[in-house]
Structures are given as structure tokens and as C-alpha cells.
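Two entries, shown back to back:
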Amino acid sequence: MTLAFDPAKLTLPVRHHIGGQYVPAREEIAVTAPSSGVTLGAVPRADASVVDRAVEAARTALQTSGWGRAAPRDRLRALHRWADLLEEEAPALARLEAVCSSRPVSDTVAGDIPVTAEQIRFFAEFADKECDALAPTAEGSLGMITSEPHGVVGAITPWNFPISMAGWKLGPALAAGNAVVLKPSEMTPFSALYMAELSVRAGLPAGLINVVLGDGPDTGTAITGHPGIDKISFTGSTRAGAAIMENVARTGIKPMTLELGGKSPMIVFEDADLDLAAECLERGILPNAGQFCVAGSRMIVARGVADALAERLTERFNRHEPAATWDAQSGFCPIISEVQLGRIDSLVRAACEQGAEALCGAARFDREGSYYQPTILANPTPDNPAVTEEIFGPVATFQTFETEEEAIAMAAHPTYGLCSGIFTRDLARALRVSRQIEAGTVWINRYGRSRDHILPTGGWKASGLGKDLGREAYTANRRTKSVLAAI
């Protein structure tokens, strides 16, 4: 069976999914295929009344189903059934993802969907394994620390990995006993709707997952400021995260998990395996055309190996050819929109005007669709926009250093602290440097997340609050209560 498809023949869900059913509404927001620039259709923009309806459906589902009070293994089994169905429906789900996103259909079937199913099963297993605790108290009393679900979680996901990001939000929230009101990006809404439909088919209570479509200023603001939503989980830009914090503070305090922007450094020392480093540096910036928050967009290389590594990297960067996300064979991914491509190109041009040298790329591909060439910008100054700004495209800077102390200083960023990479054969140096880098994740002689879902991910500084993945993501979806009884 080929996964290739004709986007014009795909039936797209263009309605909200509330209370286990699709809800029609006036279609207002155009959805465009970045692989071709063709408008696929339009989706509704949920206003405050629609969000009210979704929150009420979520709360009703919790009350009538007893999901948060159910036997933990019942939640576990239901989530396993949902994960199984996501894998069974992978081709259909992947086409809904690929048609409007930057994700190739074959990569989504082979990677995004099975990893998402794994993560849902991973979080499901916490349901009957995380325990309340007895606390040491004075004789004649019993102290306990118990935990409960928050209730209704408001989740907002970005456009770059729609299925994966939905799984990050839904898996731990549901396993912990909550219901969810989810807003996917208005540019990539279709796969989240089908995930909600499949959850009902898998036997999860209708209304446990509600998907409302819309943009950030209207729909997102209504979600984050809603008094009936008990926790917020967001992945996106630092600017949007700051706006969410402001809205939550203004409308009512509630806990938040925010995974925000990054400008992650990859430090290559002189004793590194250069072939391995080149492979990892390529993999650190070019997947999904650099449109991922942990992208290793700042290459910081020992001067003695800089020329040799630059030669390896330019050869690797120049061999990529684009392909539509619905083609049978995966190719280099498109930029999500012409607006984003224009921003990328503007930043690259500004960087070159301010002294950076383009070793490769620095232009769009000459074909239909929104494709930008893999780009390396060498020798930028510390205040160059290519160094300071999160470009969110296939663009990396290439800087050199002489000493370990200089490398650490260059790795520091005034705004971001999401991820970092270190390449060296000296384990003592790797551990020493990892302790001095301000980032929520450090990879050594590799770059990028693994399928070790126990490892939490999240940023320092303006790269976020709290963690996704790991035990931390599950516990963030429950609130603790101290109980002290006289006996």
C-alpha cells in the first residue's frame, strides 16, 4: 500500500469536536498546503461561547463517567485501546497531518504516530503506579500526602508536530484523570480532530477530549482565561507564552506548563569524532526544515577543526531536495507558510548584511510551495540577528572558539535555555561543561530526543516553565493535598 495521496481528494474534518461529536460552525480561517500553496478549505474560529460549551462538555464527561475517580487500571486499559487504534488508523491519520503541515506522510506513519502511541501508553502506566505517601508526623496523628486530578486542562499545541504535540498534552492529562479542551494550530487542525474521534471509538468517555478550532488571539485567549479550566499546557513561541501568562494572571491564577522557544548551541571540541558531529549537527537543524523548538541552530566549533567540519556540513546540507508532504518518498520539508518563509529569508538577509557569510543556501528553492534551502551562516558577531533570534527554519550559525571557557560563554544566550549539545571524546570535559550550560536538556555525542519517554523535556529562562514527558509531566497534571488526622 502506498501512502501517497492526492490532497484534492482528501475529505477534511472542518468542525469542532465537542462532547464526542462534530459540531458545525461558520468556516472563517483558510487552511493552506505549504507543499503547494493551494488553499484546502477553511475552519471555524471558536469564540468564548464555543469554549464555554467545550468546557461544560469536559466537566460533564468527568462527572458522568467518573473518569478521575475510576480504578486506575480502567484508565490504563482505555488509553491503551486508544493508542492501539491510533496505530491501526495511522495511514488515515497521517494523511490528515501531511496535507496541511510540514510533516511528510511516510515519516508520520513511521515516526510521529508510533512514538505518540508509545507515549500515551507510557503515561497510562503511571495511572496505577504513582502512589500517595504517608508523612512522618507526631505520635497520635496520621499524615498523608494525596493527589487528585486538576479537573479540566486547557491545551494549546503548535503547528510543527501536530500529532506529537497533541499526544504530549493529552497523554499525561488523561492518565492523571483529567478532561481536556484542546486547541490545535489553525494551520494544522485536522489530525487532532481525528485523534479525538478515535478516542471515542476506543471507548474513552465522550467529552473527555474536546477539540475547538481557532486562532490564538480569540480562541486561545478564551481558553487560557476561562474560569472553568483548571490548568494550562502550552507549546509554542516565547512571545505567545508570555501573553498566556499575562492573561492567566489577569483572569484568575492557575498552574501552567509552558514549553517555549529555543536557540540551542551545539559545541564541537577539537577531539570530537567529526563524522559523528557532522551527522548530529545536520540532524539537529534540518529535520522538519528546522521547524522545531529544540533545533540546534548555533554551531560553536573549535577553531582547529572548523574548516574540516564546515566542509562535511556543507556537503550534507547541499544534498537535500524538497518533496511534497503527500509524495511516496520523503524529501526536504516545506516551511509552514509563505509568511514564515518570508521571515526566515528576511533574517538571513539581515544576518548577511551584518557580516555573516553564507556557506550554503540562503535562498528559497525554485519550485512551487514554501521551501527554503538548508543554510549555514559563518562568523556572525554575537549581536547578529542569526545568533540572537529564533529563526525557526533550516538555518544554523557557525562560530569558532579557542578555549573551553570561551565555548561556554558563547553557548550562553540572554533569552533562551532549552537544549544544548556537546561533542567530545573526553567524558570528564563533557560532564564539566554540561553543568555550566544553562539549558533544560544537554545531549552528549548525540542530538535530539530519543524514545526514552522517562526523560522530561522543558526549558530554563524564557524557554519555559515545567516539563513535558517524564514523570514530571504526569505529576504536573495532578494537585497534591496534605491530610493530617488525629488518631
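entry 2 starts here
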Amino acid sequence: GLAATAVLTGAMGLAGTMAAFLVIRFLAGLASAFVLVFMSSIVFGHLAAAGRNDLQALHFGGVGLGIAASSALMAILVTGHAGWEAGWFWSAAISACAFPLVALLLGSTATANGADGREPALPKDRSLMKIIVAYGLFGFGYIVTATFLIAIVRQGGGGRVFEAVVWMVTGLAGIPSVWLWQKIAARIGLYAAYAFGCLAEVVGVTASVAMVGHIGPLLGGFLLGGTFIAITALGLQTGRQLVPRAPRRVLALMTASFGLGQIIGPIVAGLLAQATGDFFLASIVAAAVLLVSGAITWSAAPKSP
């Protein structure tokens, strides 16, 4: 999956038609889904075996680090007046350099539940169904701002360097976010932390289009980075908690629901933006969907006897 991601990223710089872009991004989405499911399973398995589940935040912190690194790369390329292809080529080169390091450090592929072989079927559980639906809604809600934040900055008159700065803020906020929200979850519970994370992201999504000047996009980027990676992790943890004996199955199903939301979200937001001329209504719809996701997850929490 990681190797395919590097190759497909480079291929984007060689493509020149919308059809080619769509095919390459579809394949890249499949590759990233494999990476998320299997790498999380491997890492969580090693951490569980070592009794160090507290280090899960480091695994997801890599997402924020990657976002910050990509924004720095784009700032350099923009100031150097590089062509659009350069961003894809350099990203592919960095991914290709990182691939052998991951391959060497991977070690044994311990499973998340410490047992090899076929996992049991997922139970027909009401709470699990709620979590899967809520996770898909979260994919819809967060991806609107994640996809169009730079377009929102550009529409507001921000320059290319400021676009990179906003994305840099998003990535830097994402690095410690899982650690922070894990601390919150330890105090108020996993499901409540997920719900409050959605609420915090609602503030950011709304701020990105409701506050004028640089403050809105910066606050939107900060709260997006400070929540979406953590909520992604918290959601997967709720699934693993509900179905501890079939972690790969539940991770795969939740990732599929998440991906479906990520597909539908930009389409709906794009149509709304085209109809209204800006991203205000699209962002408000995304904020409302995030609220619903948080509310469903809250309702799925196990009830105290």
C-alpha cells in the first residue's frame, strides 16, 4: 500500500486529463485504505503486546506531521515558481524515500488481537451499527473543510503562501491532537470525547467561512487539525472496543463507511458551492452533519447498569 501510494502520487504529475486524475486518485484511495487498516492493526497489535496502548497517539501523529511537511514543501515550491507537477513529483520522491525505512522497521506483523487466522463475523449489535453510521457521517462532515479549505482561503483573497501557512497550522495542530484527546477520553469516556471532538470541529468548520480576514481560515485549520485525526482514532477505538475479537473486520467496515462519507461530502459541497457562489452553505451543512455524528456516537455509549 505504501509503495503504491508513492507510485500513484508520482503518476499524478504525469497525467494530463480529468479521466486519468480520477482513476489515479481512486487507486490511491484504495492504497491508503489498505495502509490505514493494516498498519493500524499491526501497530496496535505490537503496542497491545507490549502493554503500551498509550503510544497509539504517536501512530496517528504521523498524519499531522505529513500534513505539516507537505505544506512546507508547497510553500517552497510556490515561492520558487515551480510548476504544478513538481508538487506531485517531490511528494512521490519523499514517499519513496520513507518506504524502505518503514519496511525495515515493520518487524513481525502481529495481529491486533494477538491471534492469527480468520476472524469471527461481526455481531449484529445496535451500538456497532450506530458507530459505523456515525463514522460515515464524520467522513462526510470533516472532508468538506479538509478538501476546500485552500479554496476558501483563495476565495477570500489569501495568497499562495498563506494557503501553505493555513495547511501548516492544520498539520502542526494535528501532531499532538490524538495524545490530547486520549487524555480527555480517559477522563470523560471514549464516546463523550468523540462527541466533544465533533463539537470542536463544528466551531472550526463554521469559523472558516463565517469569520472574515485571516482569522477564520487559521482558526478553521487549527481546529480541523486539532480534531479530525483524533476523532478518526477515537472512532476506530470504539469499534475495536465493541468487537475486540475481530479488529480487522471492524476496521475495514468502518473505513469503508468513512470512505463513503468522504466521497459524498465533496460532491454535495461542490454542488452547493456552485449553486451559491461560495462555500458558506456547504460548510454549514458539513457542520450540521458533524453534530449528528457526535450525537449518534454519544447515544451509542454503553449504558451504566
